[in-house]
């Protein structure tokens, strides 16, 4: 009798309870229900959260899964935003069938260019080199946008018309559900990517790049690929953000926004995809409340909150709900993962 308890039942006790899918479902249901229960101005705020969550996904891919510290994600975000704003201003092109591909293409090209320069050198770059290189790129992009008259200079490009499809314009609830649908598709694509063999290689690079190189993997190529993909996602978010805000400005490309997206991910929990989305929701919601209730000291309150979470929960707020095994990922063969539920059933039967 004791053997049975110590065997199958012991294995069943080790079976991980997957909570991330439940968090994903809850967040999806909440954002689907937002237009039903909240006024229009909060629907617009929710749309902004979805787009920033999409932006946060791009950083989580490069840092949370590949270990690349990028302080320049806003370069791809703002670059795509400016590109679609110029199309709208100079050519009256606001069709979603053009805006989305252009946003993705601009982010992809910029990401690939930065990756080729920083990651594909003769010698593997250090974390500091990549961090400072991306930081410099974002700073240069912001200064270019601020000083170039064609891009509107300090004032940016205002009065961007609504996103359209034929004669239909995406505003309010329609825009919210549109960006939510795009987010879900991109999120599912990222989830499939990080759970593939490519994602396993990325985690290996993050944990021990030298060992992966010894096994024959060309780590810089993997890093460049995921960096380019992340650039495309950031570009998509930037194009949508330009239409959500109705204008673009130099700070969309700059260092401040790049640092802000890092805080989102650290606050929510990196390497989980859903964690950065939680970070965006939490920080932006606290900012909204604090700035309204405490207009003079809200940055101090927000800073103290961020510091408290990072000190108490270095893995982010998602660690309140999700265990270490699920956050880090389970890369065992499927046969091994099925063994625990089978052992649980046998143990219950015994």
Estimated helix fraction:
over 70%
As a whole number of angstroms, the C-alpha radius of gyration is 22 Å
Gross morphology is globular
**What characterizes the major β-sheet?**
2 strands, antiparallel
State the low-pLDDT regions, or none.
Answer: 1-16
Helix-strand string? HHHHHHEEHHHHHHHH
Q: How much strand content do the residues show?
A: under 5%
Distance between the termini: 9 Å
Brief summary:
By secondary structure, the protein is an all-alpha fold. Helices cover 74% and strands 2% of the residues. Mean pLDDT is 85; it is low at 1-16.
Which key terms come to mind for this protein?
350 residues, mainly alpha, two-stranded antiparallel sheet, 14 helices, 74% helix, disordered N terminus
Notes on the protein architecture:
38% of the residues are buried. The protein is mainly α and 350 residues long. The protein has a two-stranded antiparallel ribbon with strand order 1-2. The N terminus is likely disordered. The chain contains 14 helices and two strands; from the N terminus they run ααααααββαααααααα. It has one domain. The chain is globular and about 55 Å long.
